Amino acid sequence: MGKVRTAAFGAHHSLVVTVDNQVYSFGRGDKGQLGHANIVTQGGDETYLESLPKSIQDLMNRNVIQVAAGDEHSMALSVFGELWSWGGSPFGQLGHGGIMDIRKPTLLSGQHSMPMNIKAICAGYT
Q: What SS3 class is residue 27?
């Protein structure tokens, strides 16, 4: 991992954007908030844990400039105003029209009358 541009910290997970616009995540990912679309297995047990920063492949070459981490969800914003969200969505906080968890970054902007010129993002507790 290179030099860090920005980072965000959720309840039990962290997101990092490097100066070369790569996005990494680590920590607990039981709701998909790490964005790796898989469950990590350690010692034969499903732990939902990534103890070292791991690149989020679906956000490679997407020019991500900002990330946000909620309690069980994550978001990423590109220099072009594109917005992705993923993770737990028990109250619909991902914005994809449902309450299903999404385990990998899913484009949100340009859908559901969402503008494409988003300038900043943040995430809260739920």
A: strand
Residue the block writes with tokens 């790490």: 34
User: How far is the C-alpha of 63 from the C-alpha of 70, rounded, in Å?
Assistant: 21
Is the entire prediction scored with pTM above 0.70?
yes
Encode pLDDT of 8-46 as tens digits.
999 999 999 999 989 999 999 989 999 997 665 555 555
State the Cα angle at 10 between 86 and 2, rounded to 5°.
85
Average confidence (pLDDT) over 49-76: 94
Question: In Å, how far are 45, 72, 83 from 94, measured between CA atoms?
Answer: 28, 10, 11
Q: Which residue is associated with the tokens 């990494």?
A: 24
Average pLDDT over residues 50-57: 93
Distances in Å between the alpha carbon of 113 and those of 95, 107, 108?
Answer: 11, 13, 10
**Tokens standing for residue 81:** 């105003």
Task: Quote the CA–CA distance of 48 and 35 in Å, as a whole number.
Answer: 11
Pseudo-torsion of CA 66, 99, 96, 57, nearest 10°? 50
